[in-house]
Amino acid sequence: MALDLVSVDGAAATRRFRLVSGRRFAQAAVDLGSYPYSGDPKSTCGLSFEEVRVPTPAADGPAWLVPGARTTWVVFVHGRAAGRGEALRAMPTIAALGLPILVVTYRNDPGGPRSPDGLYHLGATEWQDLEAGVRYALRHGARRVILFGISMVGAIVTSFLNHSVLSGSVAGVILDAPVLDWDAAVRLGARARRVPLFLTALAEVVVSLRTGFQWSAEGKMGPGPFRTPALLFHGGADDVVPIGPTESLAAALGDRATFRKTVGAGHAQSWNFDPEGYEQALHEWVLHTAALVEVRPRSAPPGQRLDRASRPRR
Question: For residues 239 and 256, what is the distance between their CA atoms, to the nearest angstrom?
């Protein structure tokens, strides 16, 4: 079903249901999710795409590749346990500008490669899988990349920018409801569930023991690694990831940041509350950022081969 927005009143949105596929059953129980689209780029958006495999340190990871004519690629990374379908909301806007889109997976994703311990490391190791996606793009025709991440991927992108030898290939960053302070995010969730503070602190210790994650060194992501333009979305009613660190990052980046706070939107729901405004902001920012990059003199960023054999087949 598609959901057409009728009205918004505070934190409540009224939408009209429109059946797209399947059958509607009278008096049937339903469950609503925040992802309006399912399927793949072709069935949902009418976009041609390839199923490709990206070699990661864990194993080959499945990815969607939507081809485009430009040399700036968008590498999209979905939120934890969300699946590649999370990219479908933004995909038509980006594809219309001619940018190729690579939607990657990371370790322990549904359908993705498994790590030896099967645990999420809160971005501390997953950034290597993003690096593998960027390397794939550079070896298949990209000159620069724009990173697009949702939720937990704020931590993955920041770790990539901090540690990867390919960080110089990044032309810009788009983050939607990003985790930029793990301690703040955990404490927000604990307060919502009325978990005592001492249990929250104990849980963080357990996470460190099991994964090696260092809360003091890796838990807070400041503006340091952000050396390119950034487009930031965050819902004003997000009760999963606090908006404060996003506001602080936007303030620290100054003119390099474009920040859109969506009043009333919950976690990663900025598009849902205002799809037209979201897509307009995305269109303008990507068009401007890609144009800035592509007028620069041609040079190969780290890890890129410019030979013809490295380009994707059309």
Answer: 27
Computed over every residue of the chain, the mean pLDDT equals 82
Q: Which CATH superfamily is domain 41-296 in?
A: Alpha/Beta hydrolase fold, catalytic domain (3.40.50.1820)
Q: Distance between CA 30 and CA 212 in Å, rounded?
A: 40
| The model's pTM | 0.81
Residue 121 has what pLDDT? 65
- The tokens of 103 are what? 């939607």
- Which sequence spans correspond to the domains of the chain? 41-296
Strand partners, 103: 64, 76
Give the percent of the chain with pLDDT over 90.
53
CA–CA dist 84, 76 (Å, integer): 9
Q: What is the pLDDT of residue 279?
A: 97
Q: Where are the alpha helices (DSSP H) in 112-169?
A: 127-139, 153-163
Do residues 63 and 102 touch, judged by C-beta distance below 8 A? yes
Look up residue 287 and give its two tokens.
Answer: 């068009």
Spatial separation of the C-alpha atoms in residues 314 and 308, rounded to whole Å: 12
Rounded Cα–Cα distance for residues 52 and 104 (Å)? 9
